[in-house]
Amino acid sequence: LQGQAPEAKRRREGGTLYIQCPYAARLEDSDTKYWCRMTDQRCQELVQTRYGYRQQSRDGKITIEDDTTAKTVSITMTELKAEQSGTYWCAYYSSGYFVPLRSISLNVFKGPKSLLFPSGPAGTCPALNANTFMILSLVLLTLLILALVTSVILGVKHYKLLGRTGRREAEDASDRPEGTAQPGSTGRRESSRDDSKDPAYINLDVQSPASPEDPLYCNVEPSQAHRNPQSVEYAVIAFNQPPRNDR
């Protein structure tokens, strides 16, 4: 590995680095495994482990764990800072030197922290903290209130629209002329003009042919009678005689 370029890893400040280093072909359980940082051509030890133990750094932000069954060393670095950028080794100590099992080039860059999904070990699901949960609750509550207000406004507008439509239909029905009377019903004549000045007419629509001998009636309500007794109304009733069949 010493002649190979280290693996590049990028993390945001406050993030987490998690890597695994297999050692099955080289080491025994009793051999000490190290996590160290390259400084001035030497590897500065950060944490170490052996015999399957789990160890942490003094500040608790670096953890190393030896899985003797899988023959793998796992390293976790949390709350990363920009000054921690550099080259790191998973290594073991042999003949006075650190021999790398895996070499990592870590680049920690500044930037806003991820609100919902901070970086963590592979296969893990980071838990939401209390502040994040509170923010999410407020956002969801605000959206729910907006949805309710919108529904109420739309319902009121729809109700008013139905009311205006009903009144318009009623006004249209009252404005329709009622000058045509059907047999068997009472025909009404209403006029906005003064009956004493202009003549008014009532049309009688007979659906079936009538005989000249059949009586016809037209009922006039007292409210429709002329106040001036000298006024005269004329009614003209005409029938079209059906053709006769002499055969």
UniProtKB/TrEMBL annotation:
What the entry lists under InterPro entries is as follows: Ig-like_dom_sf (IPR036179), Ig-like_fold (IPR013783), Ig_sub (IPR003599), Ig_V-set (IPR013106), Immune_rcpt_domain (IPR052314)
> Where is there biased composition of kind Polar residues?
221-231
SMART domains the record matches? IG (SM00409)
* Any GO molecular function: signaling receptor activity
Any one cellular-component term (Gene Ontology): cell surface
A Pfam family assignment = V-set
Q: Where is this region: Disordered?
A: 166-232
Q: Which residues cross the membrane?
A: 133-156
- Origin superkingdom: Eukaryota
Keywords in UniProt for this one? Disulfide bond, Immunoglobulin domain, Membrane, Signal, Transmembrane, Transmembrane helix
In this chain, composition skew of type Basic and acidic residues spans 166-178, 187-198
Domain called Immunoglobulin: residue spans = 6-109
PANTHER family found in the cross-reference section: TREM-LIKE TRANSCRIPT PROTEIN, TRIGGERING RECEPTOR EXPRESSED ON MYELOID CELLS 2-RELATED
Identification of the protein by name: TRML2 protein
- Organism phylogeny: Eukaryota, Metazoa, Chordata, Craniata, Vertebrata
Q: Which gene encodes it?
A: Treml2
